[in-house]
Amino acid sequence: MHPMSLPLLVTKGQPGVPNWVLERFKQVDTQRAMGLVNNPEVLVIDTRDEPDFRKQHIPGAVSLPYHGFNQRYPQFAESVSKDRQLLLYCYGTDCGLAARVGKRLITKGYTELTILRRGIEAWKAANLPLETQEEYNEN
């Protein structure tokens, strides 16, 4: 089992994600991701849990967490076209949530998906900017 209590199927280093899904993603490092983040035509998607998103996220990102995807997806689908370029990220190297959310988006017809390699872990290591949701309170 994966530490997040999900079935473990490791393929190309992504737990629980079949190869046919991984082949549909582009993967980028932080340098290339920075260019995407600064492109207004690209939507950045944080697939981590909501409290972690509120605490810190990549500037301009929206929250579409793996845990809570079914509740959030209808509103997401209403506002995001299926051909919009999406940059997804999660916690880090061994996370796999971005790929899992990507898999769900692919099955719903989204076509332009890119994943930030090593997730927010790599973003922080590169000392790139982060945002905090205004109503976040650490108490």
Task: Walk me through the structure.
This protein is α/β, with parallel strands linked by helices. The protein has one domain (25-125): Oxidized Rhodanese, domain 1. The protein has six helices and seven strands. It has helices at residues 19-22, 30-37, 50-55, 69-79, 97-107, 119-125; strands at residues 10-11, 14-15, 26-28, 42-46, 62-63, 85-89, 113-116. A five-stranded parallel beta sheet has the order 3-7-6-4-5. The protein has a two-stranded antiparallel sheet with strand order 1-2. The termini are far apart. 31% of the residues are buried. Mean pLDDT is 86; it is low at 1-13.
CATH class assignment: Alpha Beta
What would you call the structural class?
alpha/beta
At the fold tier of CATH, the topology name is: Oxidized Rhodanese, domain 1
Helical stretch tally? 6
Number of strands: 7
Strand order of the largest sheet: 3-7-6-4-5
| Overall tally of domains | 1
User: Strand portion, in percent?
Assistant: 15-25%
Mean pLDDT: 86
**CATH architecture classification:** 3-Layer(aba) Sandwich
Low-confidence stretches: 1-13
Radius of gyration, in Å, reads 14 Å
The string of secondary-structure elements, in order, is EEHEHEHEHEHEH
The CATH superfamily is known as Rhodanese-like domain
Most strands sheet: 5 strands, parallel
> Which percent range fits the helix content?
25-40%
Distance between the termini: 32 Å
